[in-house]
C-alpha cells in the first residue's frame, strides 16, 4: 500500500539562484492544493544547505517545496510546516516476475466496487490514513484526472468472488524515474494475506508485457510497503521531505 503522487502539468526546470546569479538548484514547477510547488528540488554541485535555505526563504515564500532530507529539516527549523516525508522509487521492467497469481486480473472494477477494499486497507494507524479518507480520489485516478491517463497494466485481485485490492497505474507526464509509468495506488484487504505482493507482481508483469521500461512510485516514510517494494526489485532514487514555506 502506498500513496499516489499528485502533480498537475509541470515545467522542468526553473532555477533557484544565489544573489550573485549562481544556480543553486533546479526543480519542477507546478501547483498542488492551490499553492505553487517546487517539486523534486535538486541542489547543484557544491551548493551548501545554508545557501539553499536562504534562497528558499527569499524566493519561494508560501510555496510547497519537495527537498532532500537535509534541506527539508533546515526548512522545518526555519519555520516551515511539514507535509510528508516520502521515498521516490523506480523499477527496471526488464526484470519482472514470470508467474502471476490467477487471482490478479485486469482492472475492470468501478470506484464503488473498489471502495470496500480501499477502506479496509487504510486503518487509523496507517501513515496514509488521513490522505486515504478522500474516497473520490479512486475515481479520479481511474478517469486519469489526478496523475495522468490510466494504464492497461492496472490490476485488481479477486478472492472468493469479491474484489480485495487493486494496483492502479497511470501515465504520469515526464520521464522515469521521477515520472513516466506510475504506480499511483496499491491497496489490499488485510484479511487476505499476501495479496498485496501478488498484485504488485501482476502489475509489474503486465507493465513489462505492454512494453513499458520502468515503473515509478512514491511511498510515505514509515509505510512498511517500502520494504515490500525493495524486496520486489524497486530501488530508491530519492528520500524527500515536503514542506510548506511561510508566506
General description of the model:
With 247 residues, this protein is an alpha+beta fold. It is 26% helix and 36% strand. The chain has a 7-stranded mixed beta sheet. A 4-stranded antiparallel beta sheet has the order 6-7-8-9. Helix 1 packs across helix 2 and helix 3 packs across helix 5. The model has no long low-confidence stretch (mean pLDDT 93).
Helix count from the secondary structure assignment: 7
Query: What's the β-strand tally?
Result: 11
Mean of all residue-level pLDDT scores = 93
Q: Characterize the biggest β-sheet.
A: 7 strands, mixed
Structural class: alpha+beta
What's the arrangement of secondary structure elements?
Blueprint: E1 11-17, E2 23-32, E3 35-43, H1 49-59, E4 64-68, H2 69-77, E5 81-92, E6 104-106, H3 111-121, H4 129-132, H5 136-142, E7 155-159, E8 162-172, E9 180-188, H6 195-209, E10 214-220, H7 225-231, E11 235-244
Parallel strand pairs: 3-4
Antiparallel strand pairs: 1-2, 2-3, 4-11, 5-10, 5-11, 6-7, 7-8, 8-9
Helix pairs in contact: 1-2, 3-5
Write a brief caption for the model.
With 247 residues, the chain is an alpha+beta fold. Helices cover 26% and strands 36% of the residues.
For this entry, give a set of tags.
26% helix, alpha+beta, 4-stranded antiparallel beta sheet, 7 helices, 247 residues
Amino acid at each position: 500500500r502506498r500513496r499516489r503522487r499528485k502533480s498537475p502539468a509541470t515545467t522542468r526546470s526553473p532555477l533557484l539562484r544565489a544573489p550573485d546569479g549562481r544556480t543553486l538548484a533546479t526543480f519542477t514547477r507546478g501547483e498542488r492544493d492551490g499553492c505553487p510547488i517546487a517539486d523534486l528540488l535538486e541542489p547543484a554541485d557544491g551548493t551548501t544547505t545554508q545557501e539553499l535555505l536562504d534562497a528558499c526563504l527569499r524566493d519561494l515564500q508560501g510555496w510547497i517545496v519537495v527537498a532532500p532530507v537535509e534541506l527539508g529539516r533546515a526548512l522545518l527549523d526555519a519555520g516551515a510546516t511539514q507535509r510528508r516525508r516520502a521515498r521516490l522509487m523506480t523499477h527496471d521492467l526488464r526484470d519482472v516476475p514470470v508467474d502471476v497469481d490467477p487471482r490478479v486480473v485486469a482492472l475492470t472494477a468501478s470506484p464503488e466496487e473498489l471502495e470496500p477494499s480501499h477502506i479496509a486497507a487504510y486503518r487509523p494507524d496507517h501513515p496514509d490514513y488521513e490522505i486515504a479518507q478522500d474516497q473520490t480520489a479512486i475515481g479520479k485516478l481511474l478517469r486519469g484526472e489526478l496523475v495522468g491517463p490510466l494504464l492497461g497494466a492496472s490490476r485488481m485481485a479477486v478472492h472468493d468472488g469479491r474484489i480485495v485490492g487493486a494496483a492502479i497505474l497511470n501515465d504520469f507526464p515526464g520521464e522515469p524515474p521521477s515520472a513516466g509509468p506510475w504506480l499511483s495506488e496499491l491497496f489490499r484487504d488485510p484479511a487476505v494475506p499476501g495479496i498485496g505482493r501478488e498484485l504488485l507482481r501482476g502489475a509489474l508483469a503486465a507493465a513489462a508485457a505492454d512494453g513499458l521500461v520502468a515503473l515509478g512510485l512514491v511511498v510515505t516514510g514509515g509505510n512498511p510497503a517500502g520494504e515490500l517494494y525493495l524486496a520486489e526489485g524497486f530501488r530508491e532514487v530519492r528520500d524527500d521531505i515536503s514542506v510548506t514555506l511561510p508566506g
